Amino acid sequence: MATYRELLAQRNALDEQMAEARQAEVGAAIGQIRELMTQYELTVDDLAPRRRGRPKGAAAEKSTVAPKYLDPKTGATWSGRGRAPAWIAGKKRDRFLIAE
């Protein structure tokens, strides 16, 4: 039976072999992909088209919602979205509506 250190050495050797084999196979795969792209005149956009939806970055900021309810005692507001604040929880919300 092999010792722990021998098994660790075997594992390290296998890890190195796996990394070398992967690198060789990835290189071959990339070569095949490049050959096919050249043969069929493909571009990166043909393979991975741009996503639709909201753009990332500054334009993707969350929009703010106008407040719908006002606490007359403290001046705190609530948009009506999410968890209700303590000052309105369990009370009739009609009394706190902000007149438009």
UniProtKB/TrEMBL annotation:
Pfam families tied to this protein: Histone_HNS
Listed Gene3D superfamilies: 4.10.430.30
Cellular compartments annotated: Cytoplasm, Nucleoid
GO MF: DNA binding
Top-rank taxon: Bacteria
PANTHER family from the UniProt entry: DNA-BINDING PROTEIN STPA (PTHR38097:SF2), PTHR38097
Family in the record: Belongs to the histone-like protein H-NS family.
Record protein name field: DNA-binding protein
Species assigned in the record: Cupriavidus malaysiensis
